[in-house]
Structure formats: structure tokens, C-alpha cells
Write a structure and sequence with these properties.
There is one protein chain. By secondary structure, the protein is of the alpha/beta class. The mean pLDDT is 96. The strands form 3 sheets. Strands 1-11-8-7-5-6 form a 6-stranded parallel β-sheet. Strands 3-2-4 form a 3-stranded parallel β-sheet, with helices on both faces. It has a two-stranded antiparallel sheet with strand order 9-10. The longest helix has 21 residues. The protein folds into 2 domains: 86 residues, Leucine Dehydrogenase, chain A, domain 1 (Rossmann fold), CATH 3.40.50; 124 residues, Rossmann fold.
């Protein structure tokens, strides 16, 4: 039986630590502020934005909400970002992705000042991570590192395999594990002998975007398995990229879906926002 890594509990600890920090900053006369921009009304985005607002409220961060119509142009959105970049009372800017097709996502990411890039997506933030400089780190990979550390799972010297090479999870994840002195292999759709590569992993991080693809045949007994995926199955139940029922009996530690990586993403977004406000 694997040790189940409780993301809800760990994210609650982080939020409570941030709440204390924010209250100290408030006592010094500093109010942290996050601006959240949503274009259109994609139902999943609306849920995520609502969760972010709730987290801000709990921690004591002021949140500004910009709910823009679906037909908003790229120029209109960038004009709002420029205004927020110039506003010293705003510490973090977040544009909820995806954006409608008339807006270029890369242009929007690059329009946000790296000092306010609490999502950690700006090329300057990614570049800082790759050369070991200070900067905001993409929230999901940063959350995975906290899950491992706060569960006393050693990364240093371990064989770490990341399945997926997206800019938001796979690539930053591999760089963060490297920063923690893990030995890293990144797998993707063109990887040969995927099972054999995965079975070498002491720590297997799955961000492949396919429901329950990774079963016990990919996992070394005793390995730590982190499931970044989230899907709805044929019965409308939430599931991850890992087939939990088959992997849990042989893993040493595993994250559930839901309640594993998901809550950590918002906790680390809040962490980035508090850091943005505290550095001034």
C-alpha cells in the first residue's frame, strides 16, 4: 500500500503560512493585490477563477476581477495589462488561459511585466529558472516540489522521470528537479521504450494528458508517482493520467486525483503573489 500524498492538507498548510505573512505585511501598511483577467466564459476557466478569488479572500490578498466579453480584441486586453503593469498597487497579474482564438496567447504572456508574472510563464521567468536565477516559477511544478519536500521524499541523487514536455509543466518540472539535484529524464510522444524508461524512475511525474494511461506496468515497485493529469472519465468521475487502482498497490507514494497536485497549483500561485508584493 502506497503512502498517499495529501495535496489538500499540504496546500492548506501553505495557505495558512501565507495568511500569517500577509497579516504581517498588512501590519506594516502593505496590501498585496492580484488582478485576475478572464476573457469569455469558458466553464472550466470560471471555476478556476472562482477558486483563485476564494484563495485570495482566505489569505487576505485583495483581488481585482476583470471579466471581459468573448469578442474582446488582443489590443483591448493588452491595454488593460499595460495599465495594471503601471499600477504600483497591483503586485500580480494573471490572465486565465485559454483565451479566445482571436487573441495570441504568447503575446499576452509577454505583455505581462516579469515582476508581476505570478503564473511564471513569461520568457524572462522561464529563462531565470533555466540558469538558476531568482524569478517566478510555474505554479504546478513548484507545487509538485513542495508535495515531495513536505512529504519527506528525497529528490537529491534520485532517478526522476517526467512524462510530458509542455512549457507549463514538463519543461519547468525537469529544471526544478535538476535544481534539487535529481537525475532527470524527460519523456514525450516520440520516446522509444517508454515503459522501460519509466520503470527506472524513483520519482515518476506524469503530465501526459491521457486518462489513466500509466498503469502498474510502467512503475518500479516502491517508486513515488505524481499524477499531474485531470480528466473526467466515461462516468463523469475525475481521474488522472495514472491508473490509480493498478499503481497504488505497488507504489511507495502516490498523489490521488482529485486532491493531489490540483490544490497545490493555487497555493503556489498565492505564494508567488505574496512574494511579488513582499519584494518591493
Amino acid at each position: 500500500m502506497a503512502f498517499v500524498i495529501d495535496g489538500k492538507k499540504i496546500s492548506a498548510q501553505i495557505k495558512d503560512e501565507l495568511k500569517d505573512k500577509v497579516s504581517t505585511l498588512k501590519a506594516d501598511g502593505k496590501e498585496i493585490c492580484l488582478a485576475v483577467i478572464q476573457v469569455g466564459n469558458d466553464p472550466a476557466s470560471t471555476v478556476y477563477v472562482g477558486n483563485k478569488k476564494k484563495a485570495c479572500e482566505y489569505i487576505g490578498i485583495k483581488s481585482l476581477a476583470y471579466e471581459l466579453p468573448e469578442e474582446t480584441t488582443e489590443q483591448e486586453l493588452i491595454a488593460i495589462i499595460d495599465k495594471l503593469n503601471a499600477d504600483d498597487s497591483v503586485h500580480g497579474i494573471l490572465v486565465q488561459l485559454p483565451v479566445p482564438k482571436q487573441i495570441n496567447e504568447d503575446h499576452i504572456i509577454q505583455a505581462i511585466s516579469p515582476k508581476k508574472d505570478v503564473d511564471g510563464f513569461h520568457p524572462a521567468s522561464v529563462g531565470a529558472l533555466s540558469i538558476g536565477q531568482k524569478g517566478f516559477v510555474s505554479c504546478t511544478p513548484a507545487g509538485v516540489i513542495q508535495l515531495l519536500k513536505r512529504s519527506n521524499i528525497e529528490i537529491e541523487g534520485k532517478e526522476c522521470v517526467v512524462i510530458g514536455r509542455s512549457n507549463i509543466v514538463g519543461k519547468p518540472m525537469s529544471m526544478l528537479l535538476l535544481r534539487e539535484n535529481g537525475t532527470i529524464t524527460v519523456c514525450h510522444s516520440k520516446t522509444k521504450n517508454l515503459k522501460e524508461v519509466c520503470k527506472r524512475a524513483d520519482i515518476l511525474i506524469v503530465a501526459i494528458g491521457r486518462p489513466r494511461m500509466i498503469d502498474a506496468s510502467y512503475v518500479k515497485p516502491g517508486a513515488t508517482v505524481i499524477d499531474v493529469g485531470i480528466h473526467r472519465d466515461e462516468n463523469n468521475k475525475l481521474c488522472g493520467d495514472v491508473d490509480y487502482a493498478s499503481v497504488e498497490p505497488i507504489a511507495g507514494a502516490i498523489t490521488p486525483v482529485p486532491g493531489g497536485v490540483g490544490p497545490m497549483t493555487i497555493a503556489m500561485l498565492m505564494n508567488n503573489c505574496v512574494e511579488a508584493g513582499a519584494v518591493e
